[in-house]
């Protein structure tokens, strides 16, 4: 593994010297810009409320009333409790709430949607990286070096995941700058107020945004690995890209349809959304974070082993 | 470079190598040695298994049976040690077209420890690409790609050089230069060079020994000179009446003659038999004006050995 760094350099060179990588970054930036402009100019931004404390006190009174009316519904009750707790925290700590879009809410909003776009890009990158060498025949010159095929495949996989990191950093910086330009850099110093386990906590927005990226990247990670498996097994980039993106898109629909069956919890996509354990409600009551992580691990090991076996054991006839 | 001890040890050794795909045997029990300091040519019609054999030597394909050793290291058991000795082009030299020639070489250099920037420029100069090495490979001609392919194969001073169809796309001057360089590598640096080519005349000039492959079997390994001299020669005799002459030879010696025209017969006979034929013709009262043996090319011999199948 002494020259593994060199292999990564090679794979990075092959990713970024292709025009497709540049096009992807440009599309990503374009989408962020479009999202920013639409939010900014599609409606009136609510004005800041100078008497915000009174407003919050009034809001909490209303919420308490509403909560009484939905007694028995745990989900709704939890939601009201959370909102009330956060409002009280703001009043106590003199933290003015923002109405409308701020720099950080824009950054946070961009995360979920753009990670899906980045997933598609990374699927394309990993599939091309693995399969195109078979199409062009360069695989023959690549595999006759004193390097095991396992190391080559690993360098391709890691460099594709590094591409995801590059995209995420680009996304973070671009949405932060655009958020500042469109909604004011004044919001950059805001603190994040969250609610977990019945208590309100303060945190930094940067940390929370990256936590969001990470949670959203679970399905990216699984689908990129799946694309790598298909590309290794069939040596066909188009098939790997098509199948992975289709699966990624169809997953939520399929999970919804199958929601009633208890075995749905073993389906990969029932477990990729880990936010169901942090901010949402689990798909099925018996599912826990530990259970989902275990299911994900099993799928992951399966994908990696099968992809690896195909890549390292099959003859090169291209 | 090569001491006597090294010269007597094969650089590449094939031991009962077989390759089966499904029920079909593609390569059947190949065994032969290739030594440092020689240029070895692989000959055979398409589908004979030349490329499959080369792919097994460089580890791109697994063998079903047997083993291949490169400088004593098994390509199966000690892949890294074995392949580190090899520089190769397998079929066409396919490069990354979206990278420059130089970036391609840097790419391969990173995969082998100890290749300096100076060494990269050295091989670039050697294949005379220095003027266009920083252009994208997209814009290279076939000949330039071939030269870049040779450059990547030579980067790490391999002791075994394998070139599949190396003259493909080269102009006559390029072929001549490559030939000179391959001879230099084998003679002066003791490199074992393995080439395959469909240009038989080219092989004749380039190779010291050739191995003929047909339907996955090795028909023979011989030096180029032996290969051409062995077997039957073609004798051309100018006579007064070719028909009568042919009849005489057939009746008395049971040899079938070819009649290119009215006054010439051609006989596929061994060198020693020429006087017997001449005697027979003289006794049959046939006038002989000239006797000539046609110099045989590798191509004639090849067609003879492989049963007249064309090479390409």
From TrEMBL, chain A:
Transmembrane stretches, start-end: 21-39, 110-132, 153-178, 213-231, 238-258, 289-311
Superkingdom as given in the UniProt entry: Bacteria
Record GO terms (molecular function): ABC-type transporter activity
GO cellular component, one term: plasma membrane
Keywords: Membrane, Transmembrane, Transmembrane helix
Keyword Membrane: yes
Keyword Transmembrane helix attached: yes
Pfam families in alphabetical order: ABC2_membrane_2
Protein name: ABC-2 type transport system permease protein
UniProtKB/TrEMBL annotation, chain B:
Xref: InterPro entries: AAA+_ATPase (IPR003593), ABC_transporter-like_ATP-bd (IPR003439), ABC_transporter-like_CS (IPR017871), P-loop_NTPase (IPR027417)
Any Pfam family: ABC_tran
Lineage: Bacteria, Bacillati, Bacillota, Bacilli, Bacillales
Statement: the UniProt record of this protein carries the keyword Transport: yes
Protein's UniProt name: ABC-2 type transport system ATP-binding protein
Family (UniProt): Belongs to the ABC transporter superfamily.
Top-level division of the source organism's lineage: Bacteria
GO molecular function per UniProt: ATP binding; ATP hydrolysis activity
Keywords assigned by UniProt, alphabetized: ATP-binding, Nucleotide-binding, Transport
Record PANTHER family: ABC TRANSPORTER, ATP-BINDING PROTEIN
Annotated ranges, domain ABC transporter: 12-240
Originating species: Sporolactobacillus nakayamae
Record keyword Nucleotide-binding present: yes
């Amino acid at each position: 593994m002494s020259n593994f760094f060199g292999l990564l350099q090679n794979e990075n060179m092959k990713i970024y010297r292709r025009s497709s990588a540049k096009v992807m970054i440009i599309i990503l930036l374009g989408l962020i810009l479009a999202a920013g402009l639409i939010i900014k100019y599609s409606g009136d931004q609510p004005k800041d409320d100078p008497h915000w404390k009174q407003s919050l006190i009034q809001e909490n009174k209303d919420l308490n009333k509403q909560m009484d009316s939905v007694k028995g519904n745990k989900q709704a009750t939890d939601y009201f409790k959370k909102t009330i707790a956060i409002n009280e925290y703001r009043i106590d700590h003199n933290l003015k709430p923002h109405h409308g879009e701020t720099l950080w809410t824009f950054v946070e909003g961009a995360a979920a949607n753009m990670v899906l776009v980045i997933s598609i890009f990374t699927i394309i990158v990993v599939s091309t990286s693995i399969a195109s060498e078979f199409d062009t025949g360069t695989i023959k010159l690549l595999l006759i070096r004193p390097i095991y095929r396992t190391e080559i495949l690993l360098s391709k996989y890691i460099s594709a995941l590094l591409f995801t990191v590059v995209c995420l950093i680009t996304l973070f910086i671009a949405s932060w700058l655009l958020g500042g330009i469109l909604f004011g850099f004044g919001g950059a110093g805001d603190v994040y107020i969250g609610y977990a386990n019945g208590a309100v906590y303060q945190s930094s927005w940067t940390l929370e945004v990256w936590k969001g990226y990470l949670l959203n990247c679970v399905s990216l990670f699984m689908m990129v690995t799946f694309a790598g498996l298909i590309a290794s097994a069939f040596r066909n980039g188009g098939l790997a890209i098509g199948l992975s993106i289709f699966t990624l898109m169809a997953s939520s629909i399929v999970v919804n349809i199958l929601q009633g069956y208890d075995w749905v919890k073993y389906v990969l996509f029932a477990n990729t959304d880990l936010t169901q354990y942090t901010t949402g409600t689990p798909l099925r009551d018996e599912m826990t974070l530990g259970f989902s992580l275990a299911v994900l691990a099993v799928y992951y090991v399966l994908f990696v082993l099968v992809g690896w076996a195909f890549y390292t054991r099959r003859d090169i006839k291209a | 470079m090569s001491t006597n001890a090294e010269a007597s040890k094969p650089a590449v050794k094939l031991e009962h190598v077989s390759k089966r795909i499904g029920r079909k045997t593609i390569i059947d029990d190949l065994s032969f040695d290739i030594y440092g300091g020689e240029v070895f040519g692989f000959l055979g019609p398409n589908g004979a298994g030349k490329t499959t054999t080369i792919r097994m030597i460089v580890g791109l394909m697994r063998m079903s049976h047997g083993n291949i050793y490169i400088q004593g290291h098994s390509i199966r058991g000690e892949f890294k040690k074995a392949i580190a000795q090899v520089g190769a082009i397998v079929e066409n030299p396919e490069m990354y077209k979206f990278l420059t020639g130089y970036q391609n070489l840097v790419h391969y250099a990173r995969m082998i420890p100890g290749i300096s920037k100076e060494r990269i420029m050295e091989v670039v100069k050697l294949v005379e690409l220095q003027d266009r090495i920083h252009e994208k490979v997209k814009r290279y001609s076939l000949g330039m790609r071939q030269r870049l392919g040779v450059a990547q194969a030579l980067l790490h001073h391999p002791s075994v050089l394998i070139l599949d169809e190396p003259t493909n796309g080269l102009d006559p001057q390029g072929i001549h230069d490559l030939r000179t360089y391959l001879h230099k590598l084998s003679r002066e640096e003791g490199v074992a060079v393995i080439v395959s080519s469909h240009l038989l005349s080219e092989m004749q000039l380039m190779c010291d020994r050739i191995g003929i492959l047909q339907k996955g079997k090795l028909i023979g390994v011989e030096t180029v000179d032996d290969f051409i001299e062995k077997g039957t020669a073609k004798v051309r005799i100018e006579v007064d009446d070719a028909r009568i002459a042919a009849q005489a030879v057939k009746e008395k010696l049971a040899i079938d003659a070819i009649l290119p025209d009215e006054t010439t017969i051609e006989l596929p006979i061994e060198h020693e038999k020429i006087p017997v034929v001449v005697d027979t013709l003289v006794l049959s009262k046939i006038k002989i004006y000239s006797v000539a043996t046609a110099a045989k090319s590798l191509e004639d011999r090849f067609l003879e050995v492989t049963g007249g199948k064309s090479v390409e």
